[in-house]
Design brief:
By secondary structure, the chain is α+β, with helices and mostly antiparallel strands. The protein contains 17 helices and 25 strands. A seven-stranded mixed sheet has the order 19-20-18-17-23-24-25, sandwiched between helices. The N terminus is likely disordered.
Length: 500
């Protein structure tokens, strides 16, 4: 006699705290996303300072968790694990009671810029241990700034955390981090894969060694949902919580990157260009190298905070604020694709330089629209924004190539991957096959993959990706358009040199 009893579906609860949006989502072991609840991240930007209220962030996050469970009518007993990611770098400081010492500082902050310039001038460098060219949002310059200008906050600090670690602490009471976040922050000696007090001594910060969180693997159970967290979220007390990942690595894993043959290009707030490498090699041309969470590999990375955020700035900061954007966003995106498909790039004369935030690709240049005239309309300008963003990614990928990293295809994720015209432009400019995947939430999916690994559902990363990630589209490069774009790229670099 057949057993007609329904089999209960199991879920993993994934939390992603980005700089633009926070999300809580339910994902099954096959990679199907059952529901997503999003909320805005309230970042406080003021004259180069970029901060956020830690308690507000955690409150909104826990509320989103409760909401996604309630809205999808999921029994908390059917949630087998919880995992999270968060924006990389910045710092989240807590005192010996676990309370915030001050506002968190985000990766978009530039208060450490002059410190880094002075250290470079004086020949103080930590590249040989961390394989990273220091940048503003990393822990060392931010902590030094706080020690110098906010000594009371510095002295009150008991633990130095990152975004996802703060949320995990609110869920479990455990103060831990993982290898992806800490290596991205420049706190780990990549050769020994551990903290190294010699790094901190060099910058007069040796005391932070005792304040660093325990290092855990991304697929390791680091704690369990506490009674207090269960009440606030609707999760079951005792549910295991997995170590998690920095957000950009969650995105590239969720988009299917697992070998050395492809670049991962994330075009979101940040333009993140990465590739997996099996050996650690010194390549100063590359902005940074971080620890990859699988098979003792490394991830070479060249990035800046100036990618698809340029389109969002233009739509929100210019069109919507001026009252000129009347269409619903998804309708407008479709209209953009339709209008851009009609444009002749041979006749394009506008160049857009997407440096709305500080970038390692520019000395002093900020955003510039160059070469427009009375014949141009809104869509000519949007085409130039698309092109300028892709040119920026090309510059980053060229840096990876200078460091000896050559791949034959691109896996594209982030906001730009939702536009067919933008995807095709990436293929034509980069002169490589561009692959997108079906999930609109690749960061969430990457988290789910590591939860599935932590719970023993799949034996390794390759098997998990094969079962959970699905290819959506493949874009082939157009040789003729590549020739046109390369001529325009030469002009782009020439104008940039004059203006920078």
């Amino acid at each position: 006699m057949a057993n007609n009893k329904a089999v209960k579906k199991k879920y993993m609860l994934c939390i992603d705290n980005g700089l633009s949006m926070g999300k809580a989502s339910l994902v099954d072991p096959a990679g199907n996303i059952a529901g997503v609840v999003s909320f805005k991240t309230e970042v406080i930007n003021n004259d180069g300072f970029s901060e956020l209220d830690m308690e507000l962030l955690s409150s909104r996050t826990l509320n989103a968790v409760k909401k996604v469970i309630t809205e999808n009518e999921v029994n908390s007993e059917d949630i087998i694990a919880v995992g999270n990611s968060g924006h990389g770098a910045g710092i989240y400081l807590v005192d010996n009671t676990g309370s915030p010492v001050r506002n968190a500082i985000t990766s978009m902050d530039s208060r450490g810029e002059n410190l880094i310039k002075n250290w470079k001038r004086d020949g103080i460098d930590f590249y040989k241990k961390v394989y990273t060219n220091m940048w503003n949002g990393q822990a060392i310059p931010l902590l030094y700034w706080i020690k110098k200008y906010e000594k009371e906050s510095y002295d009150k600090t008991a633990k130095i955390l990152f975004c996802k670690d703060w949320i995990k602490f609110k869920l479990t009471g455990q103060l831990t981090s993982d290898y992806t976040d800490t290596s991205n922050a420049g706190l780990v000696d990549l050769e020994i894969r551990d903290y190294d007090i010699e790094i901190y001594k060099k910058y007069g910060l040796s005391e932070i060694y005792e304040k660093l969180p325990k290092l855990k693997r991304s697929d390791e159970i680091i704690g369990y949902i506490t009674k207090e967290a269960a009440i606030k979220t609707g999760l079951k007390e005792g549910t295991p919580v997995i170590g998690g990942l920095v957000d950009f690595i969650a995105c590239l894993i969720g988009s299917g990157l697992n070998d050395t043959n492809a670049y991962s290009v994330v075009s979101g707030t940040w333009g993140i260009n990465t590739a997996i490498k099996s050996k650690l090699t010194k390549s100063p041309e590359i902005m940074s190298t971080v620890l990859f969470p699988a098979e003792n590999n490394f991830l070479a990375m060249d990035t800046s905070p100036n990618s698809a955020a340029n389109l969002e700035w233009f739509l929100s900061g210019i069109l919507e604020k001026s009252g000129y954007l009347n269409l619903e966003r998804q309708q407008f995106y479709k209209k953009i694709d339709k209008e851009l498909s009609r444009l002749d790039i041979n006749r394009s004369s506008i160049f857009y330089f997407p440096f709305i935030y500080r970038s390692n690709l520019s000395q002093k240049m900020q955003g510039v629209i160059y070469g427009f005239n009375a014949s141009h309309d809104l869509y000519n300008l949007i085409h130039a924004i698309y092109e300028g963003v892709v040119f920026l990614h090309l510059m980053h990928i060229n840096n990876l190539k200078k460091g000896g990293i050559n791949c034959n295809k691109v896996i594209l994720s982030g906001g730009a991957s939702n536009s067919k015209q933008w995807c095709q432009m990436f293929a034509d400019v980069l002169n490589m096959e561009v692959v997108t995947t079906s999930s609109k939430e690749v960061g969430i999916l990457g988290l789910a993959i590591y939860q599935a690994l932590g719970m023993g559902i799949y034996k390794d990363l390759k098997e998990a990706i094969n079962n959970m990630v699905r290819v959506k589209s493949i874009y082939k490069p157009d040789f003729k358009k590549n020739n046109i774009y390369m001529e325009r790229f030469k002009e782009f670099k020439k104008i940039k040199k004059l203006l920078d």
